[in-house]
Amino acid sequence: MTQALDEIKIGGLGASRKRVEDNRFIRGKGNYTDDIVLPGMLHMEILRSPLAHARITSIDTSKAWQIPGVHLVLTGEMMATRNLAWMPTLSYDTQAVLATDKVRFQGQEVACVIADDPYIAKDACEAIDVEYEPLPVIVNPEQAVAEGAPVIRDDKENQADNVIYRWEVGDADGTERAFAQADKVSKLKLHYPRSHPSPIECCGSIADFNRATSKLTVYMTTQAPHIIRAAVALVAELPEHMIRIISPDIGGGFGNKVPVYPGYVCSILASILLERPVKWIEDKTGNLISTGFARDIYLDGEVAMRNDGKILAVRMHCDADHGAFFSDAQPSKFKIGLLHSAFASYDIPVGHITARGTYSNKAPGGVAYRCSFRVTEAMFFQERMIQAAANDLGMDQAEFRRSNFVRDDQFPHRTPFGFLTDSGQYAKCLDVGLRAVGYEDFRRQQQEARARGRLLGLGISTMTEPLGAGNSREYDILGIKMFDSAELKVHLTGKAIVRTGARTQGQGHETTWAQIVSHELGIPADDITVEEGDTDTAPFGMGTYASRSTPVAGAAVAMVARKIRAKARKLAAHLLEVSEEDVEWELGRFYVRSAPSRGVTIQECAIAAYSNMPDGMEPGLENTAYYDPPNLTWPFAVYIVTVEVDPETGVWDVLNIVAVDDCGVRINPMIVEGQIMGGLTEAYAVANMQFITFDAEGNCVGSNYMDYLLPTAWETPGFELHSEVVTPCPHHPIGAKGIGECAAVGGPAAFVNAVMDAISDTGVRNIDMPLLPDRVWEALTYHRDISGAPPVRADD
Amino acid sequence: MTIVYDDPGDEATAEVPVRRIRFTINGAKKVAEVEPRLLLSHLIRRGVGLTGTHMGCDTTNCGACTVLVDGTAVKSCTMLAVQADGHEIETVEGLATASELHPLQEGFKEEHGLQCGFCTPGMMMAAKALLDANPDPTEEEVRWALSGNLCRCTGYQNIVKSVLWAAEKLRSASG
Fold first, then answer.
1. Which CATH number fits domain B103-174: 3.30.200.40, 2.60.120.260, 1.10.150.120, 3.30.930.10?
2. Residue A193: inside a domain, yes or no?
């Protein structure tokens, strides 16, 4: 008898396999966009607008052209002659590539220079003389809809005001009736401040147009190379088969590297014009002030309840500030992303959401920053409203949540806004978290501390995240359905290569996709290469964002491996000289049912596919699978944070962070935990310090890492992670759900709820993020709510 | 950097000042002619061609460009190449020998101290400066020593573990 394979030992499902990609990164041998050097390569720099809203009266590039080493100076006027001054966005709007008539936000691209050296290109940018005539500036939705507000998008026909859309979902009348029957209505106004995903690596591209072959190759920092290829084909009017997008190693994405940015387009045009490779590498300020921001939503929320704690209905109105162009990267049917996933954790009969999007003189490009399209806002609003509602009823925070949770036996469960959540054990997760944090003990300590003037607080947050768009019926981007793909080629010696349409940016696909194949086929993970990011070789896919990878591309990997196994079974039957029905499968091996010692390994089947296939069988052992998920996957999590607030200074310290994540089956527990810790850190950052705001003139505050604060190892607290609750996804081939974003989605409310809990005696209902010490101090000292983005003093 | 310009036919090119510098990088002696304004990080990346030293922020905040200059951790985007004249530079590419990884490299892999990998070289060089000076640091000392290096993926906990793993290995090797 042969020994059955040990799946963990071969690096299959559930193995905390060390990462394959680390081997190059730890040696400094990663291959990021800026590391690539092509023969004859030129360098591009962008000149950006210093003003947030102004008419361009003149652009004089003559001095720039005179600088030795300058090859090309591009302006909006020149782009316009090629019909490239504007480009379509992913949300059916248009965005300026290089400004022609006006600049509409600070940092907008006005001109660019291509030179021998980036230093020369920068010199030449400074030599460009632009004259502006300043216009009134709008920096929030209130100003955007005020009477007499200047129309920012006067370039658009039929755009008489600054409203982009009005959108609603749910049952307005039913919600109205439920509110009329409520014993109590809890109200809360919140602002989720503007943030920026801010990967350490900025955006960049190297466009390489070869006149001899007519082929355009673009190396670029993109999370979605195939979407970019389609966009370039449409925008630049190049044939799609002559476009090759290569996404090399990516130094973090978090949603920032999904959209198409003007810099990419300019580098492509410059390469076509100059017939040389053109490299554009953004600087940090350019990244922070012009590329895909996130959040920036104002909420007016209400919860209708019975006195016994039952939630009857919820009502939300959201005002979203989209900046100068509506270029959100999100499924096209949904104007404000999946904000309507709000309250998916709870069994609420009815609800109604209205939303209004407006333009402002701020950077465009709302992206799903470590979340599935506005889900972060949804879960933050949900959990802040739940906390306020429990307090308004005088109910315990944990008990109120438990009594309203969707119960285990209610799945699949229809949310008040139409989603169908698939599975979960919400109450069990909460129990694990409460036990871990020592809930009852902490409440006692909190009372005792308060008597001595110390302010301890505990915040709970739950999150139910819709991850893995499509299905293709509901989810598309500009009509392209949101499925994904995997291709698997098993070589004749039983080694293999898998390619997907996703693109890893730190998630570890090179490690985990091999584990899925290993699980399905019994081929050791070390024998499997994973390759992504090259549109000439990878099957078409929608890319990696919104936690799509494991739910969609990962599922495709499992499905293609199953196709391979089905063919291998036929080969096994042939080799074993039995009928296919008599062949059984165990990990890595087929055997004869009646004689289990007679078997062939998957590797033996692979050789046979190339050397000894049955008559009539197509040779080879390769296949491709396109996976259109039947539903989103629905991970659940409970995050509990305890803090101590210093009443003298408003500084708050984290005492404990407990995370209970149920993301279904974990492919690689080590990687899952790494992602949860990363998400918790971003949650801590956003609650504490990381935000972008604007002064009245539209100057971006947070335009560099001296102003845009990210936590370091010194500030970042430790984490306690719990993995004991596992509810496999019922419709995913290996039972997995998304996880990379959950903690960033659900985490912020836990921190804010903890601080609010600590200062609950003051009667303060809300401090909007970021909970900077001065804001907490002001709330504590003056017993007043602190609302909106931090005000910025004008320079004068 | 050596650049071949289109000849503009005037005196402009004569005005580009160049200075000759000598330095050692990962043990190899080098001589270069550089513009005085050239950043050390650009000399390393574009001049020497060692792209493991990354540039993230331009303002000395992110630490992705951290290298050792005469054993001290320095953010190479905030030092001019000419200031490296006569000095010894170590980069991430100098950590491993042909046959063996440095314990810090092993530690980062063992403890899952990296995800996208962009901050990793800078983290490891900052950590090397720490461990060279303090072979047995506490967690707090590690956190402080790395507080000039930003990571957006990991949340630092595993980075700290990685450094402590390396410290232990280095101690057991030397003890």
1. 1.10.150.120
2. no
pTM greater than the 0.90 cutoff:
yes
Give the architecture (CATH level 2) of B12-94. Roll (3.10)
Same structural domain for residues A427 and A354?
Answer: yes
Question: At B131, is the secondary structure helix, strand, or coil?
Answer: helix
Interface A:B, Cβ pairs < 8 A: 190
Q: Which of A218, A249, A281 is the last residue of a domain?
A: A281
Terminus-to-terminus CA distance in chain B, angstroms? 45
pLDDT band at B162 (very low <50, low <70, confident <90, very high): very high
Which of these is catalytic: A95, A106, A223, A515? A223
**Is A741 one of the annotated active-site residues of the chain?**
yes
Same domain (yes/no): A711, A772: yes
We report the CATH number of the domain holding residue A606 as 3.30.365.10
Q: Which of A26, A35, A68 shows the shortest C-beta gap to B120?
A: A26
> pLDDT band for position B4 (50/70/90)?
low
| Mean pLDDT, all residues of chain A | 96
* Same domain (yes/no): A252, A298: no
Note whether residue A3 is domain-resident. no
Annotated domain spans of chain B = 12-94, 103-174
Q: What is the pLDDT of residue B13?
A: 56
Catalytic residue status for A203: no
Residue-wise pLDDT for A331-390, tens only, equals 878 889 999 999 999 999 999 999 999 999 999 988 889 998 999 999 999 999 999 999
Q: How far apart are CA A120 and CA A670, in angstroms?
A: 46
CA distance to partner chain B, nearest, from residue A122 (Å): 13
Range A130-136 average pLDDT: 98
Tens digits of residue pLDDT in A179-230:
999 999 999 999 999 999 999 999 999 999 999 999 999 999 999 999 999 9
From the list A48, A153, A315, A370, the catalytic residue is A370
The 10 Å Cβ neighbour count of residue A135 is 17
- Transcribe A722-775 into DSSP letters: E-------TTSTT-B---TTHHHHHHHHHHHHHHHHHTGGGT---BPSP--HHH
pLDDT in tens, A71-86: 999 999 999 999 999 9
Q: What pLDDT sits at residue A257? A: 96
Is residue A223 part of the annotated active site? The answer reads: yes
User: Going edge to edge, which strands form the sheet with A129-134?
Assistant: A102-103, A54-60, A129-134
**CB spacing of A704 vs B59 below 8 angstroms:** yes
Q: Do B3 and A116 touch (CB under 8 A)?
A: yes
| Separation in Å, CA A703 to CA A246, A538, A615, A693, B169 | 29, 36, 67, 9, 41
Chain A residues closer than 8 Å to B141 by CB: none
Distance from CA of A15 to the nearest CA of B (A): 14
Select from B3, B116, B124 the Cβ nearest to the Cβ of A505: B116
User: For A452, how many CA atoms within 13 A lie in the half-sphere containing its CB?
Assistant: 8
Confidence of residue A236 (pLDDT cuts 50, 70, 90): confident
Inter-residue contact A601 to A612 (CB < 8 Å): no
CB distance A136 to A126 below 8 Å: no
Instruction: Work out the minimum CA distance from A663 to partner chain B, whole angstroms.
Output: 18
Complex-level ipTM beyond the 0.95 threshold:
yes
Contact residues, chain B, for A41 at CB < 8 Å: none
Range of the domain at A55: 49-135
CB A486, CB A439: distance < 8 Å: no
Contact B116 A201 (CB under 8 A): yes
Would you call A27 and B151 a contact, using CB atoms and an 8 Å cutoff?
A: no
Q: Which residue among A112, A202, A266, A371 is the active-site one?
A: A371
Shared domain check, A669 and A613: no
The Cα of A112 is separated from the nearest Cα of chain B by a number of Å equal to 19
Q: What is the pLDDT of residue A111?
A: 98
Q: Does pLDDT of A416 surpass 70?
A: yes
**SS3 (DSSP) at B85:** coil
Active site annotation includes A724:
no
Contact B38 A678 (CB under 8 A): no
Do A339 and A445 fall within a single domain? Answer: yes
pLDDT band for B7, please (50, 70, 90 cuts).
low
Going by pLDDT thresholds of 50, 70 and 90, the confidence category of residue A796 is very low
Q: Tell me whether residues B160 and A719 touch, CB distance under 8 A.
A: no
